[in-house]
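MODEL INPUT / OUTPUT PAIR
PAIR INDEX: 1
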Amino acid sequence: MDYTLVVLAAGLGSRYGSLKQMEPVGPNGEFIIDYSVYDAIRAGFNRVVFIIRKDFYDDFRETIGKRLEGHVNVKYVFQELDDLPLGYECPKDRVKPWGTGAAIYSVRDKIAGNFAVINADDFYGPKAYKVLFDYVKNNTDEDRGLALCYEVGNTLSKNGSVKRGIAIVKNGNLDGIKESKIEGYFDYVIAKPLDGSESFKTSLDTLVTVNLFGITSKIKDIIVDNFSTFLDDNIDKLDSEYLVPDVINSEINKGNIFFEVKGTNSKWHGVTYKEDKDELVAAIDEYIKDGVYPKQLF
């Protein structure tokens, strides 16, 4: 039985210019992605699918993949600009990847059954993977996805505003995602919705999505099928992105699927700003001292 973790990594090369320019966060040169896979293996995942750019395959495998391949079944899938549904052609001036929904489109024939999705450059902590694995292993409802959410106060940067998806929760299920720019203050945050609607104040324990989802085959197929509709309206908009949260929002509103919300009070780490790296490095050092991680992962 495959228990699959899908890692969205196609943007890494674009973000850093080269994988060789990625800055390590662990004591032996480990990247965030190393800790993610380590946590996933401990939770029970036995297959990892990296969605990457084809032109970064050699660099990615040499930098990251090889040291993981002896510990878990590793697969590589390419997210390419010209990997589009039949009848569509990528505009010649398009440079930006099509987004996280297109990443799921790229694995349309590579995964069967439930799977979990994470960002390559987000540090979620070990508790998240235990919840994700339980979903992947035990969920039997094709209509039911999982949105694993964090308290917004545990996802802030000390160095500036961040973008988060405010989770609108109703009866334990996701009722929508309000993508917002978040400004943190002493005991509250100000959310400025990206759709231009009015800003609002909310508490630090408000749940937000951070691209941490459990997905069924049915939900995957919906994301794949809706790509064509997105392209009909956006193919000539060179900065447009087909995003998983947008599909989830739309399909929840139609009543086609539902996403159970599970929250965690764990600390999320990312590197939105260069200065964020120091905080993450310090946090990993503390995890190692507390025995959460060994000093040498692999």
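PAIR INDEX: 2
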Amino acid sequence: MALLTTLSIEQARALGEHFGLRVSAVEALALGSVNSNFRLVAADGQRFFARVYEEQALTGAETEVRLLSLLSREGVHVVAHLEGTTGARVVDWQGKPFAVFPWVEGDWLCLERVTPERCHAMGAALAQVHLASPSVGTLPAGRFRPADMLKRLERVEREGEPHLRGPVERIRRLYDKYVPLRDEQLPLGVSHGDLFRDNVLWQGPKIAALLDFESAAWGNFAYDLMVTALAWCYRDALQISNVQAMFQGYSSVRRLDPAERAALETEGALACLRFATTRLTDFEMRTPVGGTPGRDYRRFLERLAAIESGAFAPTWASLG
């Protein structure tokens, strides 16, 4: 992704002073799909991760800061922000929130390195996030609800190229199908909402850190579990051994209740539609006609087709 914000060494030094850092070098990082991210190097050689929040307002970034602090206290493997010299952990810079984190060594996994053992660990880690909900308290409902996605589809119709109108109509029809099927009484709590492979750092077989809680919201756990399974356990087809291991890992920490088990297909479908929609707005609309978008919305429509064909059924049956 091209950075929406650039950061000169002079600007990095001025921002670093807010956090008691003497910055000697700054490097832009090609990570993520929305925010601008940087590696800062301090005069003593220590490294830090810095983020300019491109879509979140200051209050939204501060909500993430508070959440990470509380999750860390509950033993969840997250990276809490640095506290500034004035006590603030998020500063306003050119109208955008800016925060700094300790640098955590670790690897991101390519799909070939995703194994059942690692999926088991992912499921357990996600369950720990969910179980921490009572200590966190209620969060906002988030920016990626079906109603929010339908507004995005309207924008694609208004501003996108004509060839995107067909996908918009297809996705809208699928929302019409699945939204009425949603069980609004499912257990709610902290939902990461975006726990893809690039949001998890590994040190060998162990999770070093769960990253990027910017999209975290107060949502249902079944949806969050399906987002994670769809992100980690699908290549060109669903990897059954991986998805079963993830559900087993989750259940070893927090068991799904019967209503949640019954809702997995619907929640998985809504997860697919959420990411198909945001890939239209965040990638397709920003790619010149004839170009190749960085992330393809069709990949999540393929996942939805797998759900509808019953690919997940053996896993759900094993839950009892």
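PAIR 2 NOTE: Residues 120 and 236 are 21 Å apart (CA to CA).
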